[in-house]
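User: tokens in, sequence out, please.
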């Protein structure tokens, strides 16, 4: 039960995270939102995505 509660908490984004998401391009927001819900840093994930985009 405790693990389920922790999962639910991680899925909710804070107001600061939501505002931070708005600073990034529209086409990355869903991916960044999912990363934030998993507890990852939005900025770090975006930097990785940006690097991958550069290589393509």
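Assistant: Sequence out:
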């Amino acid at each position: 039960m405790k693990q389920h509660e922790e999962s639910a908490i991680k899925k909710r984004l804070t107001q600061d995270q939501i505002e931070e998401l708005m600073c990034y391009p529209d086409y990355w927001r869903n991916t960044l939102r999912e990363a934030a819900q998993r507890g990852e840093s939005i900025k770090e994930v975006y930097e990785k995505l940006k690097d991958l985009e550069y290589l393509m």
